[in-house]
Amino acid sequence: MTENLLNLSPAARSGVWLIVDFFTDPAREAEAVALFTQHVEDGRHDAGNLAFFVMKDQKEPGRFTSVECWEDEAAIQNHDAQPHHPVFLAELAKLQTREKEVRFLGFVATGDA
């Protein structure tokens, strides 16, 4: 039996997904974790957010991946306009070893019937 492992809502299935890879100084991992933890907390409260989490790469120290789902492009623009977002970007700049990579995705298949 195949189950919907992500338990996606219909809104999330049709939302705009962002996958963002961040590259930070491995020696400053604790700072990066604290920064991403706060950013997720802030972002989850922004209008139009359907999902938001950050994962740490298991093989590449200092690499983190943000997985975000937003109702639409307007929700992303709203998130970027919130007071917490430029603070996050300024703090991130102090930790980055190279520029982040952003991908916009939409579901093709979810593995559930």
Plain-language structure description:
- There is one protein chain.
- This protein is α+β, with helices and mostly antiparallel strands.
- Residues 1-5 have low confidence and may be disordered.
- Strand 2 (49-56) and strand 3 form a beta hairpin.
- It has helices at residues 10-14, 29-44, 73-81, 84-95; strands at residues 16-24, 49-56, 63-70, 96-105.
- The chain contains 4 helices and 4 strands.
- It is globular and about 40 Å long.
- 37% of the residues lie in helices and 31% in strands.
- It has a single domain (10-105), classed as Alpha-Beta Plaits (2-Layer Sandwich), CATH 3.30.70.
- A 4-stranded antiparallel beta sheet has the order 2-3-1-4.
- This is Putative oxidoreductase.
- Overall shape: it is globular
* Rg estimate, integer Å: 15 Å
Terminal CA distance reads 9 Å
Helix content: 25-40%
**CATH T-level fold name:** Alpha-Beta Plaits
Low-confidence stretches: 1-5
User: Tally of extended strands?
Assistant: 4
**How would a crystallographer describe the biggest sheet?**
4 strands, antiparallel
CATH architectural arrangement: 2-Layer Sandwich
Alpha plus pi helix count: 4
Report strand %. Answer: 25-35%
CATH C-level label: Alpha Beta
What is the N-to-C succession of helices and strands? HEHEEHHE
Arithmetic mean pLDDT = 90
Strand order in the sheet with the most strands: 2-3-1-4
* Total tally of structural domains: 1
Counting helices, strands and paired strands, the structural category is alpha+beta
